[in-house]
Amino acid sequence: MRSELLNVLQERGYVHQATDLDRLDALAAAGPITAYSGFDLTAASLHVGNLVSIMLLRRLEQTGHRAVVLLGGGTSQVGDPSGKEEGRQLLTPETIAANKASIGATFARFLANPITVDNADWLNGLAYIPFLRQIGRHFSVNRMLSFDSVRLRLDREQPLSFLEFNYMILQAYDFLELSRRHGVTLQMGGSDQWGNIVNGTDLIRRIDGKEAFGLTTPLITTADGAKMGKTAAGAMWLSPAMLAPYDSWQFWRNTHDADVGRFLKLFTDLPLDEIARLETLKGAEINAAKAALADAATALAHGVEAANAAAETARTTFDAGGAGDDLPRFAVATPEVALVDALVGLGFAASKGEARRLIAGGGARVDGEGANDAAAMLSLVSGPVRLSAGRKRHGIVERSTA
Predict the structure, then answer these.
(1) With contact defined as beta carbons under 8 Å apart, do 60 and 66 qualify?
(2) In principle, which of 100, 200, 248, 297 could form an S-S bond with 172, CB 3.0–4.6 Å?
(3) Beta strands in 282-392 (DSSP E)
(4) pLDDT tens digits, residue range 100-120?
């Protein structure tokens, strides 16, 4: 690649698909380009699943280009069917407005000077018949049915509302509006957005005769095949109001050994040569790489002071070696064990009923993450699990060696 932007994105593993990578590279090498990623306002916080898109915008700024954050005040009223097995619950305008106010601080921690816009500014005022005539006529239903966001739902005989079916048209129209208003030439998103992004590049070419590009990132899964951020404790929120920095630090610290190098490239600013050194660590030394990941990722999301405090809390909670040698232990012969059984086995609860009440009251933590599902199972495939009851009782759940 000729441009610093595309070199960085490729070296760090962000590129999955692109509409015309060579032409995009040439434009990025010739001067600053403007690119955007969109974020629907479906919750009071963004989560770790949004983090790749945020880091893409960060890489854009770091290499001298312009970043646009598109907030989906309009599209959040419809709901993106991509990757969903059923329709989203419709949100009220008041909820969407509250979510918008809540997540704004997240971008300020990652981005220096983004242009922030809300697609409600142009979507809410659309007139239906003129929109159909001017925009809708450029979309083939046959082609729309072929995109994964629609086809997978229909193949499984799961309902897809007409409201959701319109989402891809609205997202394409967003790209057109951003092209006209802010000179945006590139839309970036996850791999599940490929069809929506291509629709936007085609719409811009058909209506305005301009070049537009799309780039998607790989689906981020963990080494055991789980979707990034899906844990027994719930979503890994980026807002400290919904997930304490300590819990965020523990989430990164507990990364699977095989994921550490990849996550260091995607979710931190550590230099590639330092990441290469950390990737060579084996055995117990890999914990140093995990701590580096936890420190750097938590510092980006919550600040250096919060990351340092989280690391210190972890150090004092467990022994200095991080192995928990002085903690009570509960061993089982199976590769997984019920959370309630583990609490009883460690003596943190006298019965399963008491264990369930402890969980319901927010008193249980698995590897530092709050555990609120009384039916959760603890997987021991990747090694022992730290289980806590309150802030002072900690133990190790492990597989027996007999």
Answers:
(1) yes
(2) 200
(3) 329-332, 336-338, 364-366, 369-370, 377-379, 385-389
(4) 999 988 999 999 999 999 999
The residue assigned the tokens 């242009």 is 115
Nearest C-alpha neighbor of 341 from the set 359, 327, 324, 325: 359
3-state class (DSSP) for residue 400: coil
Identify whether the C-beta of residue 170 lies closer than 8 Å to the C-beta of residue 78.
Answer: yes
224 vs 291, residue with greater confidence: 291
Long-range contacts of 270-279 (CB under 8 A, 24+ apart): 270/296, 272/11, 272/12
**Which amino acid, residue 357?**
R
Alpha-carbon 157 to chain mean position: 28
3 state SS of 188: strand
Do residues 393 and 380 lie in contact, with contact meaning Cβ atoms separated by under 8 Å?
no
Per-residue pLDDT at 85 exceeds 60: no
Residues forming beta bridges with residue 17, ordered by sequence position: 216
Q: 366 with 340: CB under 8 angstroms?
A: no
Looking up tokens 């802010």 gives 182
The pLDDT assigned to 234 comes to: 56
284: buried, middle or exposed (CB in 10 Å: 19+, 13-18, 0-12)?
exposed
> Is the pLDDT confidence value at 123 over 80?
yes
Residue 221: strand, helix, or coil: strand
The letter for the amino acid at 258 is A
Closest by Cα among 238, 189, 237, 202 to 18: 189
Distance (Å, whole) CA 189 – CA 197: 8
What single letter denotes the amino acid at residue 245? P
| Secondary structure (H, E, C), 18-83 | ECCHHHHHHHHHHCCCEEEEEEECCCCCCEHHHHHHHHHHHHHHHCCCEEEEEEECCHHHCCCCCC
CA distance 194 to 188: 9
Q: Can you tell me the distance from the alpha carbon of 48 to that of 250, in angstroms, rounded to the nearest whole number?
A: 14
Are the CB atoms for 311 and 292 separated by under 8 Å? no
